[in-house]
TrEMBL record:
GO biological process: unsaturated fatty acid biosynthetic process
Swiss-Prot/TrEMBL cofactor(s): Fe(2+)
Species: Melanaphis sacchari
Domain Fatty acid desaturase: 77-255
Domain remark text: The histidine box domains are involved in binding the catalytic metal ions.
Keywords for the protein's UniProt record, in alphabetical order: Fatty acid biosynthesis, Fatty acid metabolism, Iron, Lipid biosynthesis, Lipid metabolism, Membrane, Oxidoreductase, Transmembrane, Transmembrane helix
Similarity comment: family membership: Belongs to the fatty acid desaturase type 1 family.
This protein's name: Acyl-CoA Delta(11) desaturase
InterPro entries given in the database record: Acyl-CoA_DS (IPR015876), FA_desaturase_dom (IPR005804)
Domain of life: Eukaryota
């Protein structure tokens, strides 16, 4: 599908000009408000239990599960399935989507669809996590409202998700999502500490489940909240995404300018970019391939001098490097990409 063909000057102008108060009338989903409140209250109690009564093994288990499931979102839902950079062999895709189910950050299909919509209409009324509506809204508020406002519904149909449905693991998770997350995110992580090292049911539930889940939820959500609010904009000062240290996605201004760079950063090292370290590790052992990485330094230097998101909103041709498909970015710039660990066919 040619997503760019659906963007017109009038469409984008309407999206930007439409009064934001129309979105603020979205009904509150009180079920979600209650659930998220209980989760975070339980997580606070879990912090207390982690210090006064939980076994060290339970706390370590919760921290480790938080780390690896967060990677499954940043390396899986985000870079592998949303951005399609890099590619992974089926064995690793199975492991990642299993960990992703434990993380419970919506299904991979829904996460990737919303993320592509977020990139195509960044910080407009058609962006589900529109940061112009405030830090709280982009962090968690959008999950507490009826999410499909009229602009999001209208522009959702411009997003091609055929590649996601073609992945059998994504399709299976989507079909059986609620059954899978009930067991993977809540029941099994409760049972493991109880039966493996004799933890109490209460400590296991509040520390290994609620505290761990709240950490994962907030850590991942920082990508579209704090990363759009604070710090520098060296690559494009006209857009909201900034550069900070949010969950391996801290070079967010660079990433929104060059979203098909698998590192999601030009600079930095593994110390603050665990996701890239994860991808590079599995590329070295042959489980990941076709790592689309940095354009030439000359292209990176040229980019801040070009019109940025403002041009994107008033021009049918998006100005982000290598996004979506061959018709969505300048061919000259695509040729300047470097493919690392290219898969050899035949």
């Amino acid at each position: 599908m040619d997503d760019s063909a659906d963007i017109t000057v009038s469409d984008c102008t309407t999206l930007d000009a439409r009064p934001i108060e129309k979105q603020l009338c979205q009904p509150i989903v009180w079920r979600n408000v209650i659930l998220y409140s209980l989760i975070h209250l339980g997580a606070l109690y879990g912090v207390y239990l982690a210090f006064v009564s939980a076994k060290t093994a339970t706390t370590v288990f919760a921290i480790c599960l938080y780390q690896i499931t967060s990677i499954s979102v940043t390396a899986g839902s985000h870079r592998l399935w949303s951005n399609r950079e890099p590619r992974a062999k089926w064995q690793l895709r199975l492991i990642i989507i299993t960990l992703n189910t434990i993380a419970f950050q919506n299904s991979v299909y829904e996460w990737a669809h919303d993320h592509r919509l977020h990139h195509k209409y960044t910080d407009t009324n058609a962006d589900p996590q529109n940061s112009n509506r405030g830090l709280f809204f982009s962090h968690v508020g959008w999950l507490l409202l009826r999410r499909k406002n009229p602009d999001v519904i209208e522009k959702s149909h411009t997003i091609d998700t055929s590649d996601l449905l073609a992945d059998p693991f994504v399709a299976y998770q989507k079909k059986y999502f609620w059954f899978l997350i009930t067991w993977a995110c809540f029941i099994i992580p409760t049972l493991i500490p109880v039966y493996c090292w004799g933890e109490t049911w209460s400590n296991s539930w509040y520390v290994a489940v609620l505290l761990r889940y709240a950490l994962t939820l907030n850590g991942v959500r920082l990508i579209d909240s704090a990363a759009h609010a604070w710090e520098g904009k060296p690559y494009d000062r006209t857009i909201k995404p900034t550069g900070n240290l949010a969950v391996s996605e801290g070079w967010h201004n660079y990433y929104h300018v060059f979203p098909r760079d698998y590192k999601a950063a030009e600079l930095g090292n593994y110390k603050f970019n665990f996701t890239t370290a994860f991808i590079d590790l599995f590329a070295k052992v042959g489980r990941m391939y076709d790592l689309n990485t940095a354009p030439t330094p000359e292209l990176v230097l040229r980019r801040p001098w070009r019109p940025g998101q403002i041009k994107y909103r008033t021009d049918p041709a998006p100005q982000s490097w290598c996004w979506d498909d061959d018709k969505d970015f300048p061919r000259l710039e695509c040729k300047e990409a470097t493919i690392v660990n290219c898969r050899m066919w035949g």
